[in-house]
Amino acid sequence: MALADKGVPEAEFAPAGAFSPQEREAVYRTIYARRDVRDEFLPEPLPDSTLERILQAAHHAPSVGLSQPWNFILIRDPAMKAAVHDVFTRCNGEAAQMFADERSASYRGLKLEGILKAPLNICVTCDRARGGPVVLGRTHQRDTDLYSTVCAIQNLWLAARAEGIGVGWVSIFEQEDLRPLLGIPPEIVIVAYLCVGFVDQLFTRPELEARQWAERLPLEPLIYEERWGDRR
Fold first, then answer.
1. At what angle do helices 21-33 and 144-162 cross, to 10 degrees?
2. What domains, with CATH codes, occur in the chain?
């Protein structure tokens, strides 16, 4: 899709380091084409070289004070994935009961994970002690290390999309249930559990939008000028 179709204007000048129009469009295309993949995974394993590129992209994310607080646990063992899936199944049943009757029925009809089907699962964690007791940029906003880890996840996701690889973020679990399964120390925060693999199809728009669970909000009402609530 052309940039103009997404409201991305051509640059009025060429700042230092700017990408070419073709390169720029490829970046935006990757962003707009990113999808949360549920169970459309193929069984073929990721080539080691491709996985290395994706993890390097994640590792090149910005981080507060260059603390790089992330770790990546690669999970391929079917028995381990089955144990994680059991945790998800229990929590998913609890989640369904939190919605009103009609919404609960719709929720139960959604496929929300590909833990068993994806050839690779990745647990992304945050080591909040990395960088020492005082980290530049984190002196007053302590959670910037968690935000940094999420930036790494986004890098991984976009790099995977550019490689034709799907990623699904599974968030319906209790950290303390996963911790003993994966041997994660108590001081380490589990930020994301990802299902990763080649796919046989991708939705042209977010799946939850396609299934009429929710829809993308228009951008304009979300933008304020100078102060909260002041419109442009």
1. 110
2. 35-222 (3.40.109.10)
